[in-house]
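Exercise: predict the fold of this chain.
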Amino acid sequence: MISRPDRAGGFDQAGAGDLAVASTGLTKRFGRGARATLAVDAIDLAVPRGAVYGFLGPNGSGKTTTIRMLLGLVRPTAGAHHLLGAPMPERAGEVLPRVGALVEGPGFHPYLSGRDNLRRLAAADRTVDPRRAGAQVASALARVGLSAAAGKRYRAYSLGMRQRLALAATLLRPRELLVLDEPTNGLDPQGTREVRALITALARDGATVLLSTHLLAEVAQICTHVGVMHQGRLVAQSSLAELRGAARRRARVVTDRPADAARVLRGLGLSEVAAGGQGAHGVLNGVAPEQVVAALVHSGVPVREFTVSEPDLEDLFVALTGEGFDVSG
C-alpha cells in the first residue's frame, strides 16, 4: 500500500517531499452546530510523484471539496497538506504556478475566441514569457485538438470544446502537477480517447496527475494509483496493481462429488466454501489454483472443470462503497 501520513504530521515511509500531494487529517465541515455537514472527514492523501492518481468516488463523495482545499480555494476546517513538497497555504505563491488545475468546469469570456481567451490568461500569468506567449498558446491549442476552432468565439463552443479549452489553459506552461476534475465531461468518445492519451503523455513526460473521476474506464485505462472516496472518507488508497492483487479471487470446480470437493477446499484454507449440484466453490485467500487442483486429484475427486474468477473494478469499488459507479466512457 502507499504510505500514508500519520497524525503527528510526518509520513511513515516517505516524506512529504517524496509525494506530489500529501495530506494529514484534511477535514471540511460546512455550517455550524447541529446543522453542520461533514463533507470531508480527516483524509490522508499520498500521491506519489509521477503517478496518475485516480481520485474515484460517487458524485457527492467529497472529491471536489477535497480538490478545492488542496488548491487553496476552500479553507480546511482541520488538517494540513503539502503540494510538491511545500506546505500549503504558506507557500502557495511559490507552488501554485507549478500546478495546473481544471476544477468544476471551465470559465472563459464568451465574446472572445478560444485563442484570445488563452492569450488573456497568458498575459495575466507573470511566469509566462511574453515573447513566447503566442507560441505557447498555439502549442496548447494543438495538444487538445482545438487549432481549427481557435478563432471561434467561446460562446459558440460545445461543452466538449469548452473542456478542451480548459485543458489547454492548464498547458500554457510546463506543470509539475495537474489536478483535473472530471476532464472528459461532455467529450465524445474520440475526444475522450484523445484526452486520456494526453494525460498519459503528460505523465510520461514527468508530470503528476491527480484525476478526479467517477468513470471506472478512466481509472482502468490510464491510472497507476487510486484513492476511493465514500461519504467524505478515503476508504482505500493504493497502486492499482495492489488493489487488483487484493481482489477476492474465487475458485470453482465442477465435479460429481461436490461435498468431497468442498471438504478439500476447506482443508486448503479457502473461505466461503459452498457445494452445489454440479460442484463447489470458494474464495482462494492466496492459495495457488494449481495447489487446489492437485489436492482435489490427490483426494480422488474427479475434476471436470476448474475455473478462477476475480472481481472487476466495478465489483471492487461497489464492495468498498456499497454504491454503483459509472463504468462507461
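Check your answer against the key: The first helix runs from residue 63 to 70.
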